Amino acid sequence: MAQTPQAKYRKDYQSPSHAITDIDLTFDLYDNDTTVVATSKVKQLKESTTLRLEGEDLKLKSIHVNGEAWTAYDELEGALEIHQLPAECELTIETLIDPEANTALEGLYKSGGAFCTQCEAEGFRRITYYMDRPDVLAKYTTKVIADKGQYPFLLSNGNRIDQGDLDGGRHWVQWQDPHPKPAYLFALVAGDFDVLRDKFVTQSGRNVELEIFVDKGNLDRAPHAMTSLINSMKWDEERFGLEYDLDIYMIVAVDFFNMGAMENKGLNIFNSKFVLANEKTATDTDYLGIEAVIGHEYFHNWTGNRVTCRDWFQLSLKEGLTVFRDQEFSSDLGSRAVNRINNVRIIRGPQFAEDASPMSHPIRPDKVIEMNNFYTLTVYEKGSEVIRMMHTLLGEEGFQAGMKLYFERHDGTAATCEDFVAAMEDASGISLKQFRLWYSQSGTPTVKVSSDYNAAEQTYSLTVEQSTEPTQDQADKQALHIPFDVELYTQNGSVIELRCNNEPVHNVLDVTQAKQTFVFENVAEKPVPSLLREFSAPVKLEYDYSDEELIFLMVHARNEFARWDAGQMLLAKYIRANVAKVQEGQEVELSDAVVDAFRGVLLSKDLEPAFIAEVLSLPSFNEVSGWYKQVDVDAVTKVLKAVKVILATQLNDELSAIYHSSKQAAYSIDHAAIGQRALRNTALSFLAYTEQGDELAKGQYADANNMTDTIAAMSAANSAQLECRESLMQDYSDKWKHDGLVMDKWFALQGTNPAENVLDVIKQTMGHEAFSLKNPNRTRSLVGSFLNMNPVRFHAKSGEGYKFAGEILRELNSSNPQVASRLIDPLLKFRKYDEQRQALIKAELEALKSMDNLAKDLFEKVTKALES
Length: 868
Ligand code: B3K
Ligand code: ZN
Known about the structure:
Blueprint (H helix, E strand, L loop, with lengths): L7 E2 L8 E11 L5 E11 L6 E4 L4 E7 L2 E2 L3 E4 L2 E4 L5 E10 L9 E5 L2 E5 L19 E10 L5 E4 L2 E7 L4 E12 L6 E4 L2 E8 L5 E8 L8 H18 L7 E7 L6 E2 L4 E5 L12 H16 L8 E2 L5 H19 L2 H20 L11 E2 L8 H34 L3 E2 L1 H12 L8 H4 L4 E10 L4 E10 L13 E4 L1 E3 L5 E2 L2 E2 L2 E2 L3 E4 L3 E6 L7 E3 L9 E3 L4 H10 L3 H24 L8 H12 L5 H7 L5 H5 L7 H18 L1 H10 L9 H17 L5 H11 L3 H13 L5 H12 L3 H12 L6 H8 L10 H14 L1 H4 L5 H16 L1 H7 L1 H4 L6 H15 L6 H12 L1
Parallel strand pairs: 2-12, 18-19, 19-21, 22-24, 25-35
Antiparallel strand pairs: 1-23, 2-3, 3-9, 4-8, 5-6, 5-9, 7-8, 10-11, 11-16, 12-15, 13-16, 14-15, 17-18, 20-21, 25-26, 26-33, 27-32, 28-29, 28-34, 30-31
Helix pairs in contact: 1-2, 2-3, 3-4, 3-5, 4-5, 4-9, 5-6, 8-9, 8-10, 9-13, 11-15, 14-15, 15-17, 16-17, 17-19, 18-19, 19-21, 23-24, 23-26, 24-27, 26-27
Bound molecules: (3S)-3,7-diaminoheptanoic acid (B3K) and zinc ion (ZN).
């Protein structure tokens, strides 16, 4: 490493020394030497006449100030300092860049045959020297010049204002974005595409052209993205009163992309995974993912673009809020219960794990080395939970009033998380003083509850104790303001009205102290409590429920989420107990009552199929790991599989009946049809472990008229290691080997294959014609799924899984550090495993640390992990 990477601290924020009000860009596009000319209107705001601009991997050609060649400057590592600038001037900088050599996929790069950009968080500095920080907002004009035959479409932000032809078969298009924006929202695309076009008329009557650009030949996979976009625009008007503000909205799908998508103003660039879908190529999960991500990026137009972040420590201001908005969008359009369940699974699984890892950080981090490392589940998903808690505390009306005030105060500017909370507080009159701690405190709180029924007094008390364990980044923790949603039931299932001090009280209790007791009056019988309903706060709940109480809640709780949660708690009890048993050499057991409870759900006529499927889904290995300080990989895997086998065997008749009766003749993508497929395929995932498994999987694969059923058959064959696995995998690969995106599902199955020789197979698979380590989707599908979702093989005692991870990481460190830095996460948690495994993982981390070109993305994580 040239220099030890330096951390930046939130507390060191300083407002910019200069303003850039306008920037005019010209790109002369060539694969290896693209010229970028940037002319900025610069205004000095503070004392210094030196302007410091960020830049990386740029060849500086010239600098002019007000048209005059300028020599008063220093080229530094990662920056350019221009001295003796007039208080106001026009600064022109010409640089040269090499898009084709850009494998990091940040800045301007080539994806397949097209040029595209990714500038968030700090990628614009790879395009030109600039004040690459989100609180510098400028109006952009962009001229793109390229070969007309190869790149008929030349796109940038805003409206197309001019175009023309040039000699030598080149042409140009000029774009102008009327909305001032930070550099991270800049985008440029040049390529040859098929275009799906539609229109949207906003509530105030603005006509908006909608255009989705996809690789040639993929037009039949674009309509779902278009429908999702139109639904997003409508929903944001109806639920938030927010309307689109340009005459055109473009989405471009590219195959090489580090994350899901990017909300560049008026020109979203998407990973093709979140655009392309038809029934032959995409699963229901893909369809729902596309709807959510299209919505998410669209919603950023207000929460992110119109009001942006003052500095990157405030990232959750736009991301937490926009995740909340996309979750609400999906819930309003589909099943609220199923959406909530899936969001909660992410928090309880990987987000809690992140809180407990060396990378733990508050949703508003205090210290960052590489910003790209902080696009995390904590900032996004926990950030969304924090917004959701405010929504719970304020109610929909109060929350919307807060949003309105937030836009009134901050539209067109760069704001902070504090600004958002202040708007919520001021609009609602509800104090969020203690609540603000959620922004600065990291880690997962545990809420321990005990209850006491006093028959003589007819009172029922709940004592709530909260505590947060120290995390690597923060030793001392304080009591948080936790909205704690409870309900009490009589033995026959009716709801008991909550009364304290002779007054009715709301079912969302304000837990604000380390220990607090709530006494409810007029409680005529010992009730069953439903606690942390709707997962009203991102905490771990501890309450000593009996099996009977949980089974009761599975049937009687008023909302579906609480019923699902009771089922999960029941499973958790048995999984924990069985892990202990297995460790003592005993067999795995489930009580008849538990099996019957799940039978009851399966047979229920009034529950939605999608919901039943969720109730039957066991917690993942990763979620279960989070329950332990040190996890016994083999015991947990054994128990999870045994529980599945027991349920499959005991519920064989019911599962078979559902499986055979719920086959749909024709394919449709409405929510009811998705739910029915989910239930049927969940049934198959159990039946795979019975005698009929092989026949059912084979039959379903052969009959399937959609990708959801195809993949469900293959995945059942993969998990249960059915005989038909190989032939199904072969057939699929023969059919789809030309299509990387469709092959990703196959790569993921190779990565999660529980077979003993999986690592050899994975290494072979890396030679598959559709595979390339240069493509982030391929890498995540094969390697990522092995590291994250194949615990037994990845954690093989021999250490071969770790060694493989180390090799891949060293390679990606030079080609694409962002992807490497995502992949490394499971290794950071080495303290969770036994000493032998710890030593093996540590050796890989040490080897990475000693590399002399270690990227700062990996440097930050590796050093934190080794400090732990
Ligand atoms: N804002 C982008 C993420 C950028 C990630 C940079 N490493 C997509 C999103 O959250 O909508
Ligand atoms: Zn986002």
